[in-house]
Amino acid sequence: MSLDQKFEQAAEAVKALTKRPTDEEFLELYALFKQATVGNINTTRPGMLDLKGKAKWDAWKSKEGMSQNDAKEAYIKFVDKLLEKYK
């Protein structure tokens, strides 16, 4: 199975979690997913009142410089950890 197929499978598996991951875990998932699918962040930081948007932007920004393939591998490993934790 190719890396892209494993990545897509992990993205689907996350939707089947029976318990809700923590906010930090969601941010990590978001950041790795965006880095894997888009690459380095390409938007400006949201405004002062958009707390959720800023948190997501900061999480994605923290992955800047990571290759898309490395981000996919990290995402797959992180999803595997979540699946074990939240079965």
* N to C succession of SSEs: HHHH
Our Rg estimate from Cα atoms comes to 13 Å
The number of distinct helices, counting runs of at least 4 residues, comes to: 4
N- and C-termini, Cα separation: 24 Å
Question: Major sheet: size, sense and barrel closure?
Answer: none
Average pLDDT works out at 95
Which stretches of 5+ consecutive residues score pLDDT under 50?
none
Query: Total number of β-strand segments?
Result: 0
Shape: flat
Structural class: mainly alpha
Strand content: under 5%
**Helix percent band:** 55-70%
What is the topology?
Layout: H1 3-14, H2 23-37, H3 51-61, H4 68-85
Helix pairs in contact: 1-4, 2-3, 2-4
Based on the model shown, name its key terms:
87 residues; 4 helices; flat; 64% helix; mainly alpha
Describe this structure in words.
With 87 residues, the protein is mostly helical. The protein has four helices and no strands. Helices cover 64% and strands 0% of the residues. The two termini are 24 Å apart. The mean pLDDT is 95. It has helices spanning 3-14, 23-37, 51-61, 68-85. Helix 1 runs parallel beside helix 4.
In short:
This protein is mainly alpha-helical and 87 residues long.
